[in-house]
Model the fold of this input.
Amino acid sequence: MAEFLAFDLGAESGRAVIGHLDGGGLRLEEIHRFPNDPVRVLDSLHWDVLRLWAEVKRGLALAVEAHGSDLLSVGLDTWGVDFGLLAADGTLLGNPYHYRDSRTDGMLERAFQIVPRAEIYERTGIQFMQINSLYQLLAMAQAGSPFLEAAETFLNMPDLFNFWLSGRKASEFTIATTSQCYDPRAGDWARDMLERLGIPARLFGDIVAPGTVLGELRPALQDEVGGPAILVVAAAGHDTAAAVAAVPAAVADYIYLSSGTWSLMGVENKEPVINEQSLAYDFTNEGGVGGTFRLLKNIMGLWLVQECRRDWARAGRAYSYDELARMAAGAPAFGPMVAVNDERFLPPGDMVGR
Done:
């Protein structure tokens, strides 16, 4: 029996799952689950990346303990847009920011003063959201961040974990496209556009397809988790790309809805759709498995529910999602309407009050 380890890191929680492949059938076994909570330091919001890395190693150790040499490979996906910057020696420069950090406030308007909005869309085909990597990097450039000068490599979050797993620096295609730094027609980073925005193009390295074998688990990590030389695979690094790849559609012409912290509705295409109409609708073209592009729209999703649940828990009312669903089902129909995409709901904190 062939066994594979997958990590799925979302914006609220992460999990490690063993896939057992036997006789053409796939059986899934969850072996580890852990929360993913942002951390506020002074006025900035960050991911607790070292704790997440400890949880990944814990999942690895549990998988090795349970399955040993039958474990063939490990792959990992995360949420989109966020990243780490590495120095020349591979050191992580600073703690990765959370995409809901306020440093990107006003960065869309600042970007359009330098590169027109229509031109950015023509080059990238990506929906305009201040959370995108492009505007996070622009905020650093505008603030004169020393990290941009000291950095050698930009890696989105799954690529950072893959580097720590394998020792190889590479940008996986599906996660790279979420950044709004990638030119899908050129099949490369939009380097000249980045330079015009004051973002060093040297930071952006090789792009690899989902399914690329990056190497074996680093020897020191093998020793730490007590495991064999497991292959590290650059899976579809963007969690939505991974989810859409698993849609059990019997026909090619279908619409998917991926629902989590964000909800995403769209279709899969062979080529990106970049024209005046897609710009007017602010549709996005994110990379998919097999060289596809996912034409979709980001919707606020369950973020408001997640944040309200945290508020209630802090007040001593720890509701489960099942309890919230039952309460919602019992509420009167046609009650208050909430414009969930209002920008006031983007940051965390006091969601019930807002």
In short: The first strand starts at residue 2 and ends at 9. The mean pLDDT is 95. DSSP finds 13 helices and 18 strands in the chain. The CA atoms of residues 7 and 16 lie 5 Å apart.
